[in-house]
Amino acid sequence: MELKFIDGGVCAVDGVLASGCREGKYGVGIIISKDSNAAAIFTSNTVRAEPVKLTEKVMRDGKLSAIVANSGNANCFTGKEGMDDAVRMAERVSEAASVDMDDVAVASTGVIGRRMPLEIIERLIDDAAGRLENSPRASRELAEAIMTTDTYPKEVAVEFELKNGKKARIGAVAKGSGMIAPNMATMLAFITTDVDATPSELKKALRRAADESFNMLIIDGDESTNDMVIITSTCRSGRMDGNFQEALKVVCRKLAWMMARDGEGATKSFMVDVVNAKDSEDARKAARAIAGSSLVKTAIFGADPNWGRIVAAAGYSGAEFNPDDISVSLESDAGSVTVVRRGEILAFEDTGELELAEEIMKEKEIRIIVDLAAGSSGATAYGCDLTYDYVRINAEYTT
Amino acid sequence: MELKFIDGGVCAVDGVLASGCREGKYGVGIIISKDSNAAAIFTSNTVRAEPVKLTEKVMRDGKLSAIVANSGNANCFTGKEGMDDAVRMAERVSEAASVDMDDVAVASTGVIGRRMPLEIIERLIDDAAGRLENSPRASRELAEAIMTTDTYPKEVAVEFELKNGKKARIGAVAKGSGMIAPNMATMLAFITTDVDATPSELKKALRRAADESFNMLIIDGDESTNDMVIITSTCRSGRMDGNFQEALKVVCRKLAWMMARDGEGATKSFMVDVVNAKDSEDARKAARAIAGSSLVKTAIFGADPNWGRIVAAAGYSGAEFNPDDISVSLESDAGSVTVVRRGEILAFEDTGELELAEEIMKEKEIRIIVDLAAGSSGATAYGCDLTYDYVRINAEYTT
After folding, report:
1. Where are chain B's structural domains?
2. A293 touches chain B (CB under 8 A)
3. pLDDT value of residue B397
4. Catalytic residues per the record (chains A, B) (predicted)?
5. Which residue of B has its CA nearest to A291?
6. CA A242 – CA B84 distance, rounded (Å)
7. SS3 per-residue string spanning chain B
8. Looking at chain B from residue 15 to 44, which residues have their Cβ under 8 Å from any Cβ of chain A?
9. Is A186 a catalytic residue?
10. Is B295–A220 a contact, with Cβ atoms under 8 angstroms apart?
C-alpha cells in the first residue's frame, strides 16, 4: 500500500473545519465534520468524567457533526452540575456552528473535582466557532488549544490508496499524557477521514488500531478518567478496506509515539518489540510489562543497558517462555547490538557488546527487541523514561 | 488472643541458631533449625535465580535443617555454573554445621548476571558457621548480613498463646525491597516458630499470611527473580491453631510495613485500607492499585492530599463500585479527616478539611481509607512514596 504523510492535521480531510483558541490556562478547540459517521473509544476507568458520559450517549446513533474539547478543567467528579456544564457546552457549539446539539461530542482535560469556569469556556467556544475553517493553520490551533502540559502540539495526516486505487485521507490531532495537576494523564485523540464506512465499521477499525497503538502506550500506568478517541468520516471517498485499517494503524501508532516522546518529564522514549511470543496476548503482556517497568524506565533515563531488568519484567508479565531461550537486542541511531542470545549473556563487563550497548542507550530514541522464542506472535509497546522531572511535576503540586 | 512483641528475631524460638557476617558488599547469614518442618513461597517470576530452583527442590520433602543466604550477588541468569555455585553453598554449610545437605535452603540477593564470588562466599560461610548461637545478637547479625540497600536490619518476634493456653513463638528476619543495582528489588524473609505443624499446614498458613502482607506490599511493581519466604518449625510447642495463623499474619504484616518504610529512596510510607468492597478480590485489587499508583506515590512525596488520584486509581483497578458512593479519609499522627463523603468532595479549596488534610499529609506515615460502599469486604496494601532518590538510585548505576 502507498501511504504518505501530508500536512493539515484533521483538516487534511476535505470538508472538515477546525479552530482553537486559548485564554490563560484554558483552551477550546472545535472540529466540524457535518453529518458524519462516527465511532469512539472511552476510558475504561469506573470513574468517568461528565463529558465522557455525555459523549457516549450522544454517539449511540453513530452520528456526529461536531466535537468540542476544552483544556484546563476535566469536568470530572463534578456531579449533576458537571453534566449540566457539559450539556451547556454542546448547546453553545450547536448554536454557534448551526449543528444539531445531539450531534456534538464534548471532551475535557485538566483539573478534576472543580466546577467548569463556564463563562470563560463559553466565550472561548464563541470565539473558536467564529474562526472555523479548513486549513492547516486551523488544525494546528486546535491541536494547541487542547494541550495541557504537552510541550508541543500533536498532529498527523496521511494520504493513501484504497485497494480500488481511489485516494483517501486520514487526519488527526491529539493531546498526550502530559498532566495538568492534579489531574490524571489524559489522552485525547480526534481523527477524521473521508473513507466511506458505517459507524460499526469505524468502531471495529478504531478498536483494532487502538489495540496496537494507544493501548500499548504506557506513561505511568495510571488511566485517566477522561480518555477519549473519536473518529469521524465524511464518507466522501471510496469504501473502507484493509488499506484503510492499515493507514489508521499507522496514524494511531504515530500519535502514540508522539505522546511517548512527550510523556511528563520524559527525556527519552523507547519502543519494545516483542517477537516470537506464544500468541499475541503473550506478546502484548510482555511488551507492556517491559515498557511499564519503573526499573526499565529509570535504566533508560540513566542510559544503562540493563538487560537484567528487561528479562525480569518479561518474566513477571505472565507471558510463557523459557529463560534459556530468550534473546534481547538494543537499537538506536548509534547502532544495534544483541546483549543476550538464547539465554546467554553477551554483554558482560569489558566486552565490545557492552561498550556498544552503552553508546546505543545514550540516544534519545531507543528500541528494545525481545525474542521469546516461544512461538511466532509479536507486539510493540511505547514508553518513556522515568525522570526526576516526572517526580517533580507530580509531587510539587499541592491542591 | 494475647500477643506481645519480644526481642530476639529468629532466635526468639528455642533451639534456633543464627549468625551473620559481612565482607565489603558481600554478606552471609545462616539459620539452623535442625530437622524442622518447613514451607516456602517463591517468586512467581518466570525468570528464577538458581538458588530459588535449588531450594524449591530441597524443600519438596517439607524438611529443613539450615538456611544460608548471601547478599551481594543474586546468582541469577548464571546457568549451569550458577546452579553448581548454589549447590556448593549448600555443601559448605552442610560440612561446616553438620547438617544433611539436602536439608539446606539457599537464598541469594544482589547483582544479577554475574558469577558468584565463591571464594569470598565460602570464607563467609565458614566464618558464620563458627559463630552460630541462639541469641538476639546472632539474629541481628544475620539480619544485617542479608541487607543490600536496606537502611536498617529487619527483625520481628512475637510470643502468643495457643487456644489451649500453651505459649508459642514466631521469630523472623527479612531484607526489604531495597535494590542493589542492577538487580530487582528482592524480598527475603525467614521465619521460625516452635508451633507443631506439618509442612502442608505451614505452607497453607504461610500462603494466607503472605496474601495479606508481602503480596500487598508494592514498592515499584517490579517482581524480583529471587524472592523467597521460608518458615521452619521446631514443633516443640503446642499444635497449630487459629491463633498461630493470626500471629503469623501479624508478623508478616509487620515485616511488610518495615519493608515499605525502607523502600528505595522512600521518605514516607503509607497503608491503604479499602473497606466495604464487593468481595475480598475487589478490595485487594483496589488497595493494590492505589498503593501502586505512581501518581498517588508522588502525591504522598509532595504531601498533597490528592483524593482525585486515589479515586481514579480505585476506578481503574477493576473493583466494582459507584463513584457517587465512594468515601475517602486520610489519617496520620496529625489527625484524621474525610475528604470525600459518598461522592461529595468535602476538601474543596479554602475549607478546614483541606487545611487539615494538608497537615495530615506532611507526616511520615499515612493511612488512606477508601470506602467503596459496595459490600463488606476489606483489604490493606502497603506502599511508599516515589521520590527523586528512587529515580537516582535506579538511574545512576551503569553496568
Report:
1. 3-261, 269-396
2. yes
3. 53
4. 186
5. B222
6. 55
7. CCEEECCCHHHHCCCCEEEEEEECCEEEEEEEEEEEEEEEEECCCCCCCHHHHHHHHHHHHCEEEEEEEEEEECCCCCHHHHHHHHHHHHHHHHHHHCCCHHHEEEEEEEECCCCCCHHHHHHHHHHHHCCCECCHHHHHHHHHHCCCCCCCCEEEEEEEECCCCCEEEEEEEEECCCCCCCCCCCCEEEEEECCECCHHHHHHHHHHHHHCCHHHEECCCCCCCCCEEEEEECCCCCECCHHHHHHHHHHHHHHHHHHHHCCCCCCCEEEEEEEEECCHHHHHHHHHHHHHCHHHHHHHHCCCCCHHHHHHHHHHCCCCCCHHHCEEEEEECCEEEEEEECCEECCCCCCHHHHHHHHHHCCCEEEEEEECCCCCEEEEEEEECCCHHHHHHHHHCCC
8. 44
9. yes
10. yes
* B positions 372-391 inside 8 Å of A (CB): 386-388, 390-391
CA distance B266 to A281: 35
pLDDT of residue A300: 92
Chosen CATH of A3-261 out of 3.40.50.880, 3.40.50.2000, 3.40.50.2020, 3.60.70.12: 3.60.70.12
* Chain-centre distance for alpha carbon B229: 8
Q: Closest partner residue to B315 among A45, A301, A309, by Cβ?
A: A45
Sort out which chain A residues have CB atoms less than 8 A from B320's CB and list them.
Answer: 46
Residue of A nearest to B317 (CA): A45
Residue A399 pLDDT: 38
Contact criterion met (CB below 8 Å) for A19 and A131: yes
Calpha distance A183→A397 (Å, rounded) = 11
Chain A residues in contact with B222 by the CB 8 A cut-off are 293-295, 309, 312-313, 316
- Exposure b/e, B237-251, CB count within 10 A at least 16 = b: bbebbebbbebbbbb
State the nearest Cα–Cα gap between B102 and chain A, in angstroms.
26
From the candidates A43, A78, A109, A186, give the one annotated as an active-site residue. Answer: A186
pLDDT digits (tens, 9 = 90+) for B183-210: 446 789 999 999 999 999 999 999 999 9
CA distance A351 to chain B (A): 12
Q: Is there a binding annotation on residue B387?
A: no
Average pLDDT value for chain B: 92
**Cβ–Cβ contact B186 with A under 8 A:** no
Residue B109 phi/psi, 5-degree rounding, is -150, 140
Fold for the domain defined by A269-396: Ubiquitin-like (UB roll) (3.10.20)
What are the tens digits of pLDDT across the range A34-59?
Answer: 999 999 999 888 889 999 999 999 99
Dihedral pair phi/psi, residue B226, rounded to 5°: -125, 0
For B302, the closest of A179, A314, A396 (CB atoms) is: A396
pLDDT confidence tier of residue A185, bands split at 50, 70 and 90 = low
Sort out which chain A residues have CB atoms less than 8 A from B183's CB and list them: 308
Q: How far apart are CA B319 and CA A19, in angstroms?
A: 39
- Does residue A198 contact residue A51 with C-beta atoms inside 8 Å? no
Interchain CB distance below 8 Å, B77 and A305: no
Q: Find, in chain A, the residue whose alpha carbon is nearest to that of B264.
A: A295
Rounded to 5 degrees, φ, ψ at B329 are -125, 155
Pick from A261, A74, A43, A44: nearest CA to A152:
A261
**Interface contact B164, partner A, CB < 8 A:** no
B242 touches chain A (CB under 8 A): no
Residues of A in contact with B304 (CB under 8 A): 182, 395, 397-399
B130 CB near a chain A CB, below 8 Å? Answer: no
A128-142, A180-194, B222-236 — most confident range: A128-142
For residue B289, the distance in angstroms to the closest alpha carbon of chain A comes to: 9
Per-residue confidence (pLDDT) for residue B181, from 0 to 100: 34
